[in-house]
């Protein structure tokens, strides 16, 4: 080959190499732009989902009954908070005790445990007048003039207290006679119960329970609590061992599930499962309340993870420990045995029905921080 032919071939090779390089660069730029656009779209879709799916959760059922339920929950929290911190008193909230006869669960607002008493409390934030009907039902006339007929609250509370005692016995502890006592707290200052209701020893009016706390809050001991609430029916007190066993039973009794979202929103209700791609739901098929007590979600960060591939969530799962309450998981090995990890796509959804709503809601794992499952 002549030198001139060689030079022409070399120039053609350079041009073809430069052209291929230019095409590769253009393809890379286009691919990066497309990936970035996809990531931005995913982020936009996530923001829209967060705004529509979470920001308006409190307004999904903004009717009078939902407002009443929320006000009642807040009243329960306020009453429970007042009892917390008193030496010798353990406070348990929103226990959901199995009711075999009706194939469901009955909720108990607050349970207080002392050495000599177990108080079962029903908290009502009703405003308006309350009258006792001839058949024993309670007639609640609201401030707006509307009337609601309720079953006899004391009879209903006694039934739930019996369920609680049976539940405790099934878990291996027998309570002394008269150990459980029932109280109905009417906490609203605008509540006007008639004398036939206030004369019943199980009923505590707003004036009465505010008087108890205003006069005894500084003392912070459990003696005044017994004097204020007890009907002196208990035959004996619990031993320290029996009290610890009872505390373990009550602290592990069924209650509402808890879902914590990014931004600090905490929702209380019932976990109903996961929804998403079959591979992810199959990975999470083990996550039921009989096997898992809580799940902590850690979200992958960084723009690279958002651009290349689908972001996923690392889930730290704490399995349920059914050992006796006196067994302490103190060693590192024991703590590791009770934990496990798994990964699923961030668009996988938690199906969760909030207390006071009539239908379940869906929350993507990308917005969930913590899920606690009741036994």
TrEMBL record:
NERD domain boundaries: 71-187
Pfam families recorded: NERD (PF08378)
Transmembrane regions listed in the UniProt entry: 20-41
Coiled-coil features, chain-numbered ranges: none
Protein origin, superkingdom: Eukaryota
Keywords, comma-separated and alphabetical: Membrane, Transmembrane, Transmembrane helix
Name the record gives this protein: NERD domain-containing protein
């Amino acid at each position: 080959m002549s030198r001139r032919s060689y030079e022409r071939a070399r120039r053609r090779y350079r041009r073809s190499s430069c052209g291929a390089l230019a095409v590769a660069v253009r393809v890379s730029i286009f691919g990066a732009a497309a990936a970035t656009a996809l990531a931005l779209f995913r982020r936009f879709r996530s923001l829209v989902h967060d705004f529509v799916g979470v920001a308006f959760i409190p307004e999904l059922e903004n009717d009078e009954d939902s407002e009443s339920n929320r006000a009642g929950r807040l009243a329960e929290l306020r009453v429970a908070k007042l009892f917390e911190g008193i030496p010798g008193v353990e406070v348990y909230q929103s226990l959901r005790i199995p009711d075999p006869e009706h194939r469901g669960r009955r909720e108990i607002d607050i349970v207080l445990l002392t050495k000599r008493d177990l108080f079962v409390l029903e908290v009502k934030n009703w405003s308006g007048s309350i009258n006792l009907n001839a058949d024993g039902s309670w007639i609640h006339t609201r401030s707006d003039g509307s009337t609601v007929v309720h079953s006899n609250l004391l009879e209903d509370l006694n039934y739930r207290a019996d369920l609680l005692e049976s539940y405790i016995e099934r878990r291996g502890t027998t309570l002394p006679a008269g150990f459980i006592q029932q109280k109905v707290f009417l906490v609203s200052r605008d509540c006007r119960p008639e004398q036939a209701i206030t004369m019943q020893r199980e009923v505590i009016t707003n004036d009465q329970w505010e008087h108890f706390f205003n006069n005894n809050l500084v003392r912070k001991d459990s003696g005044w609590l017994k004097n204020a609430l007890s009907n002196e029916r208990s035959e004996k007190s619990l031993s320290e061992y029996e009290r610890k066993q009872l505390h373990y039973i009550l602290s592990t009794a069924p209650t509402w599930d808890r879902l914590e979202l990014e931004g600090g929103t905490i929702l209380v209700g019932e976990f109903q499962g996961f929804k998403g791609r079959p591979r992810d739901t199959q990975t999470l098929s083990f996550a039921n309340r009989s096997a898992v007590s809580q799940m902590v979600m850690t979200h992958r960060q960084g723009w690279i993870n958002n651009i290349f591939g689908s972001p996923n969530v690392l889930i730290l799962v704490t399995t349920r420990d059914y050992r006796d309450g006196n067994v302490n998981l103190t060693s590192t090995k024991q703590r590791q045995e009770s934990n496990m990890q798994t990964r699923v796509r961030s668009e996988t959804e938690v199906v969760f029905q909030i207390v006071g709503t009539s239908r379940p809601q869906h929350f993507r794992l990308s917005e969930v921080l913590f899920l606690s499952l009741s036994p």
